[in-house]
What does this fold into?
Amino acid sequence: MAKQIITSGFTKLIRTKPVILIVTLHPDGSVNAGTFGSYSDLSADEIGIAIGKPSHTYQNIKRTGEFTINVLTKNIASASVICAEEVPPSISELDRAGLNVEPSNKVNAPIIKECVTNIECLFEKEMVIGYHSYVVGKCVAGYIEESFIDKDGGLDVVKAEVIYSVRYPEPLYAVLSNPFKV
Ligand SMILES: Cc1cc2nc3c(=O)[nH]c(=O)nc-3n(C[C@H](O)[C@H](O)[C@H](O)COP(=O)(O)O)c2cc1C
It folds into this structure.
């Protein structure tokens, strides 16, 4: 992959709601990855995600103040299911999914090499809503695979075959096709 560095408009890298993997660090420094789909782009460089409070992802974000967002595509879709399983911190979801990490530039949590876009985020604030906390992350760095850059600099979700969750928890996914102008 030849990824281009993005310095603004980070939320265009994820468009509406492709399935994402959030990568965080456990207290012992090992890497955790969780699957997420309930999120919104709040501004050009802020993303809010509804994260279950018992999850490793939430606990790691609260402790470290940082995380990365990594967008999933059809060729690596099985990672969505694997990273949604509840496993102890000693088991690496990414190893099981056959994915690799590479260092981030502005946070300690790494990014996933095989994902077409990645965003490095710092914890900004949260709003606890029952079981979930709506965690707002400030995007501080972003990367996009060059061959999937759309006309406006964002992610070409059709060409990249980004996956959308159609039913949950049933593992049914879809990719977008036939974009049209009105
Ligand atoms: C397609 C999909 C979307 C999901 N979206 C969310 C979500 O938005 N928020 C959430 O708390 N859990 C979501 N989950 C469930 C988490 O992936 C699951 O709780 C996982 O165990 C969290 O991993 P962790 O404990 O390593 O953080 C989703 C699962 C799938 C398969």
